[in-house]
Amino acid sequence: MPQLIATVKGVEVRHVHLKKDRTTLGRKPENDIVLDTMVVSGQHCAFDLVGVADVFLVDLGSTNGTYVNDRMVKERTHLNDGDVIAIGPYRIKFLQASEEPSTFFGTTSFHTSELQPLHASFAVLTGTSAGLEVPVVKAVTTFGKPGVSVVSVAQRRGAYFVTHLGGETRPLLNDKPIGEEPLMLSDRDVLDLAGTQMRFHLGG
C-alpha cells in the first residue's frame, strides 16, 4: 500500500501507510498525521486514496502552502512514486506501491522501477464483457466490485500475485478460495470474482 516517509534534515520522523480513503495532516491533534510546529496549519492538507495505490494530495487552505517537487499545490494533485512533498521543514517522500513485510512478499517495499518487462493480461470469460482483454500494466491493479468481491494483482520481481482485498464473496483461483495470503499467478490460471471468470495470461 502507499506510504509516506517524513524527514527533517534527513532524519526520519514519521512513517505512515495510507489505508484510509482520506488521511489528514496538520498541527491539530485530531489529524491522522500530526506535525506539531507553527509553520504547519491546523488542517494543512489531505491525502485521498483511490483504489489501492492512487493517491491525490489536497491543500486545505494552509497558510504557508504545500509543495510537491518544489511546486506549490493549487489544486487536487495526483502523486507519483518518489514525489517529495515539502511542508515547512518537513520533506515527505511518497512511495506508491509499498507493502508491509507481514502482508506482502516478505519484503519491506517494492517500487515500479523494479518491475520486469513482462506482458500480462486477463481475458474475461463470462458475463456481458466476455471476450474482453484487460492488460495488467500497473504495479498494483484492482479488479472486482466493491462490497461484493475485490482483489489486487501486484507485480513483484518477475511474478504476479493476487490478494483478496474485501467483499462478501470470497474470490476463487482455479476453483479454490483465495485466503489471507497473496498467491502467485501462473499462465492460464482462472480467477472467479463472484461469478465473473477471468483467465490470466502471462508472456515474456
UniProtKB/TrEMBL annotation:
Domain of life from the UniProt record: Bacteria
Domain named FHA: residues: 23-73
Record-linked Gene3D superfamilies: 2.60.200.20
SUPFAM superfamilies: SMAD/FHA domain
CDD domains: FHA
Pfam families: FHA
Protein's UniProt name: FHA domain-containing protein
Source organism phylogeny: Bacteria, Pseudomonadati, Pseudomonadota, Betaproteobacteria, Burkholderiales
